[in-house]
Write a structure and sequence with these properties.
The structure is a single chain. The protein is α+β, with helices and mostly antiparallel strands. It has seven helices and eight strands, in the order αααβαβββββββααα. The protein folds into two domains: 70 residues; 161 residues, Roll (PH-domain like), CATH 2.30.29. The longest helix is centred in the first third of the chain and has 34 residues. The radius of gyration is 23 Å and the shape is elongated. The two termini are 43 Å apart. The relative contact order is 0.09. Keywords: Membrane, Transmembrane, Transmembrane helix.
Amino acid sequence: MIEKFLVKESKRIHKATRRRLRICTLLFVCFMVLLYVLLQDEFARNPSFKNTIYSIGIVLIVIVVCADVIGTIRTRKADAQGENLILPYQDGSKQEIAEKINQDAANGLLFEEYIYEFPEGKKPYGEKIVLTSSYLLLCSTKITVIPRDKIYWTCAQVGYKGGPYRVRFLVFTVKKVFEVIGVDIEHVEALANQLYEYLPNIFAGYDDDFNFSYQLEELYTKDHYEFMRLYEAMQQRYETQEKDAV
């Protein structure tokens, strides 16, 4: 029997979560060992300080181990009924939307790409963007489900406040702007351009300007009415161009 898309995706996400828990636990153990080595002389001079640090250390170890165990237990079972879905637009129950996504996936995904680029043979990880005939899925620790008819525009916003070498994949929707952050600028730009095959680039001709996506995001936030006026004008122009091309 072919495994359903959301079950496979849930297993992938849970496996990545367990991996992060193991790494965090290992880093914590290494930190505690290093702390013990660095404070040995102080422990010898001050027994009361040693006892205090030991008590704090034991409490922290218990917390970290419990978090690891709980996380492992909670991620053993795949989410089969859409339990890990985030629905900004509640147009049905999680189970109903999960069934719709699985059906779309069975008919064939339109687009599936990780926000990071991986060398051939290396197993991918991290956030993933998936497009079905009905939804755009932003897959991280949970899956954000955005109906395609709620999307205004998508783009790769190169450069990021506080990090010029980062790139944001932005999804302008009826309610808010969603984002997925990457570091490989060329890869995310190519990803956004591929999606224009399925999600029309209403602002084609503007998005080559480095500052345009920032300006549009600011307009969306501060004056949504003006954003919609511009969007509707650009949408009409886009549709006219499409008709002329035919």
